[in-house]
Design a protein that fits this description.
By secondary structure, the protein is mostly beta strands. It is about 5% helix and about 55% strand. An eight-stranded antiparallel beta barrel has the order 1-4-5-7-8-9-10-11. The longest helix has 7 residues.
Length: about 180
């Protein structure tokens, strides 16, 4: 069964230490994704997602513009960050480990996400099948060629993704997202 991310009720965020003093938090405001859920065995499900690099938002316009340059994401030449799952392992009750391939700046590396399934059931407003997931991961930006300002800007970046997915048929037919 195919599901689409409801971007109004989802979030793709990150955090990284700046000057090894403060933690800077940010998000990507434009993204999309699909989920193929096997309700009988979640480990046979799959995830794919895409982030628009130019939509980076840390709450500081100058920093966001710098992140879009070749010093960091190089949005002009690499406008998308992508993730595609390769396998899923059960970890515990509603807890899973999702393995996949993450591509940043044209470099693809394996990434492991810790995922909690928050709900699979009916979304009351749409009266449609919905699923919620929280996912976290930690990556090294240097693995993807983002080495500018190391070590003053930490190599380790924490990722946090919160998603609400709606069955594709219902997504197209139901009320507009945002309610």
């Amino acid at each position: 069964m195919s599901w689409l991310l409801d971007s109004v009720h989802s979030h793709v965020g990150f955090s990284v230490k700046h000057m090894m003093v403060a933690t800077v938090r940010g998000q990507f405001k434009t993204y999309s994704g699909t989920v193929a859920i096997d309700p009988g065995d979640f480990t046979r499900s799959s995830f794919e997602g895409e982030v628009d690099v130019a939509s980076v938002d840390t709450g500081n316009v100058d920093r966001d513009n710098h992140l879009r340059t070749g010093d960091f994401f190089d949005a002009a030449n690499h406008p998308k960050i992508t993730f595609k799952s390769t396998s899923i392992e059960a970890k515990g009750d509603a807890e899973y480990v999702v393995h996949g391939d993450l591509t940043i700046r044209g470099v693809t590396k394996p990434l492991t996400l810790d995922v909690t399934v928050t709900k699979v059931g009916e979304q009351p407003l749409r009266k449609a099948p919905a699923a919620g997931f929280d996912a976290t991961a930690t990556l090294k930006r240097s693995d993807f060629g983002l080495t500018k300002y190391l070590p003053n800007v930490a190599d380790e970046v924490k990722i946090h993704v919160v998603t609400e997915a709606i069955e594709a048929k219902a997504f197209a037919a139901g009320p507009k997202p945002g309610k």
